[in-house]
Amino acid sequence: MTIFDREMNYLRNVKIIGIALLTVIAVSSCDKDRNKPGYSYFPDMEQSQAYETYTSNPNWENGRTNQLPVEGTVPREMIPFDFEKTDVNRTWAGQELENPFAGDASVLPEGKRLYDIYCWHCHGDMGDGKGHLYNSQKYLYLPADLNSEKIRTHPDGEIFQVITVGYGVMGAHGAQVLPEERWKIVSYIRQELHPMAEEAATNAKAEAENAKETGETEEEKAEEKS
């Protein structure tokens, strides 16, 4: 037998042994018992050492793991909001609530970031309601124009209330957005979107007047030529 033949036999034997080992491992891991198939190589990860939410717990008098919050307490940073989703409560919120960031330009970048996350898809870059959902025709009802005179003349507290509890077909965002973040969104709408909309309206009006004057001048020239 040549050296080449010996090496080939050796490699063939190694291959057979490897396949056999893999087969044994596969077969042995297929059935621990019929109610719990397979073997776990990391039981501390598969089987929680902590008490599961709805399991019994001997450490508490009532024997439950899942306990109610202490009476009279609220989650951190989740301040209770007493204004309901009604026109009366919206007006009341406008009278009672004050924007802690009113006139503070330092919060506008964060306000824009939050607006892009929670508001942009419906209200659009300019706040005119022509966001992605409407432009893609996935949502056929035009969302509210945040630059309308109605919203521009309302106090910040009313916008905050609408974001919190919703308005019309708009859902409530109080559970997703912290109060401080809602105020930053309000500040962005007030200090960025509204001035941009007013500037755009002023420019459009000036262009229309200029076009009108230019048109009249051309008509006068035409009359003179005739």
UniProtKB/TrEMBL annotation:
Q: Which InterPro entries match?
A: Cyt_c-like_dom (IPR009056), Cyt_c-like_dom_sf (IPR036909)
| Biased segments, Acidic residues type | 216-226
Q: Where is this region: Disordered?
A: 198-226
Annotated Cytochrome c domain ranges read: 109-189
Q: Which domain of life is it from?
A: Bacteria
Keyword Hydrolase attributed = no
The UniProt regions of compositional bias labelled Basic and acidic residues, in chain numbering, are: 206-215
Specify whether Isomerase is a keyword of the entry.
no
Q: Which UniProt keywords apply?
A: Heme, Iron, Metal-binding
Report what the protein is called: C-type cytochrome
**Whose protein is this, by species?**
Carboxylicivirga marina
Lineage from the top down?
Answer: Bacteria, Pseudomonadati, Bacteroidota, Bacteroidia, Marinilabiliales
